[in-house]
Inverse folding.
């Protein structure tokens, strides 16, 4: 008889009649799990009460709260796999998400689970669950096993209660995603002048190739951000796989004099660094000098490999080895930047931004690089970035999103540019080696946004538009303090796409944005859609732009 297990098998956990199993997932990093646990406990109590009092359903926790660890989150792929090994595959499961979570802890088990699965998030900006839920939902979609999703601020509104009732009764919860409009190569769009421009750019990409260099390719549990190589090759955007150890080696070659010149350049252009004296908890000059070395190293690697765009995984491994990558990432993605010399002294890409793929998210790399190529060809500002879909709330009669990347954006995306940027130390809990963010208020203007996802080896691209707003100081401060104040914050309204639309149909925790002048926005949107179709990407137009694509 074979003995394949290293541990004794545990009993199988099954939901009885009028019962549902609760699973919760969070970070790989235990300090984050401990900090986020009180919010999770609060929402577990809310959910337990609603299920019991409104629906007569008993919530059964499928895994323990570990008192010695200070939380009850699943915090590794091994834990998640071991848990689902002993869960009845037909039992209904609610995955309650109130914090950032690493989807790969649970996703390989959820795709094999046959019973109903509901991904439930608290709609709050604190840690936040809505970002984690969007990541898990997109991951399961990419793996060909989409799950029901639901969200609520307090677990007491009609939308939440009716959605939960439907899922408990039927095991499925479908949302209206009619805001997404598919188009294909037969669209009249392709014959328009803007469509012809997009076709030419798409054909150039297929012929020339946009090589995307990524220093390590898996970050923060985002399976939805790791595209199959076949998918990238088919759309003309192959990946150059780079090692973060090579980045460290390249950084070591940057002399101190060049690091100093780089930092002095940004200070002379008005960036404000919030200096301290204790490097363990405060920002010190040595940390930013190391980030300057990373900026130089990234640019030199970009030139050496002939890359169109470059990205750094940063949060795992590199964060324990050197200062955070944020300042380098924002600076390299800016058109106005310190003149970076190669080894011979020649300046690398003067007057041109280098798209930076934050968190090595390939679903952002695709639209970022496509937008950069298209806007550059048109002679328009070409800076791009991704943002977390972090939170949002009503203001002045409309729902305003808080989009917040975890560290930096191109300076051109900030109110005041470099002079409007502030450098805060990245939080010591995640970044023991420190380093500056590029923080500030997102500038007002028109936005083009997009996001790529995959199913199998097919690439999909959602495209939409929006308005970036400069909120009054008090309202901006309120939102900034409710999230991470050391990070840049963009406030925006998406054209024809409401809060619940995006939560229902978006296939990522991230969204990619570029600023485009109002006079050019329609034609640039048309051209981007035509470019994507030419590259063999399946296109979905989100909201209002569907009415004026042709």
């Amino acid at each position: 008889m074979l003995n394949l297990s290293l541990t004794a098998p545990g009993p199988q956990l099954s939901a009885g009649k009028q019962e549902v199993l609760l699973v919760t997932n969070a970070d790989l990093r235990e300090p984050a799990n401990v900090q986020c646990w009180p919010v999770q406990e609060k929402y577990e109590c809310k959910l337990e009460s609603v299920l019991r009092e409104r629906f007569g359903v008993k919530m059964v926790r499928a895994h323990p709260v570990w008192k010695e660890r200070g939380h009850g989150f699943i915090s590794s792929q091994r834990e998640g796999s071991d848990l689902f090994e002993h869960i009845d595959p037909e039992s209904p499961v609610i995955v309650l998400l109130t914090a950032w979570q690493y989807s790969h802890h649970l996703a390989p088990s959820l795709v094999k689970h046959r019973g109903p699965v509901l991904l439930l998030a608290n709609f709050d900006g604190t840690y936040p669950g809505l970002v984690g839920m969007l990541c898990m939902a997109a991951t399961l979609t990419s793996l060909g096993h989409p799950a029901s999703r639901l969200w609520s601020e307090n677990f007491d509104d009609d939308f939440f209660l009716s959605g939960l009732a439907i899922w408990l009764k039927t095991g499925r919860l479908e949302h209206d995603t009619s805001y997404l409009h598919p188009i294909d190569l037969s669209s009249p769009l392709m014959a328009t002048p803007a469509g012809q421009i997009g076709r030419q750019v798409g054909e150039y990409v297929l012929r020339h190739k946009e090589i995307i260099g990524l220093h390590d390719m898996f970050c923060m549990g985002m399976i939805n951000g790791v595209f199959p190589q076949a998918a990238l090759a088919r759309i003309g955007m192959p990946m150059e796989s780079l090692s973060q150890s090579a980045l460290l080696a390249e950084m070591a070659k940057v002399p101190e004099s060049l690091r100093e010149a780089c930092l002095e350049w940004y200070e002379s252009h008005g960036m404000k660094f919030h200096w301290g004296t204790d490097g363990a908890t405060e920002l010190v000059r040595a940390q930013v000098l190391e980030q300057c070395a990373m900026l130089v190293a990234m640019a030199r690697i970009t030139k050496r490999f002939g890359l169109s765009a470059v990205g750094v995984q940063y949060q795992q491994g590199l964060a324990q080895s050197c200062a955070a990558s944020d300042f380098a990432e924002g600076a390299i993605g800016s058109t106005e930047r310190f003149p970076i010399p190669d080894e011979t002294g020649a300046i690398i890409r003067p007057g041109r931004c280098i798209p930076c793929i934050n968190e090595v998210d390939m679903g952002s790399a695709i639209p970022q690089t496509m937008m950069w190529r298209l806007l550059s060809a048109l002679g328009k500002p070409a800076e791009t970035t991704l943002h977390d879909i972090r939170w949002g709330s009503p203001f002045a009669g409309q729902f305003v999103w808080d989009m917040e990347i975890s560290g930096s954006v191109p300076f051109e995306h900030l109110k005041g540019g470099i002079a409007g940027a502030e450098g805060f130390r990245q939080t010591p809990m995640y970044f023991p080696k420190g380093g500056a963010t590029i923080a500030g208020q997102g500038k007002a203007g028109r936005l083009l946004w997009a996001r790529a996802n995959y199913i199998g080896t097919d690439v999909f691209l959602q495209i939409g538009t929006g308005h970036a707003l400069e909120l009054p100081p008090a309202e901006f401060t309120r939102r900034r303090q409710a999230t991470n104040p050391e990070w840049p914050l963009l406030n925006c309204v998406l054209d024809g796409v409401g809060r619940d639309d995006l939560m229902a149909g978006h296939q990522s925790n991230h969204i990619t944005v570029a600023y485009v002048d109002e006079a050019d926005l329609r034609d640039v949107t048309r051209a981007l859609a035509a470019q994507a179709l030419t590259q063999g990407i399946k296109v979905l137009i989100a909201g209002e732009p569907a009415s004026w694509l042709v």
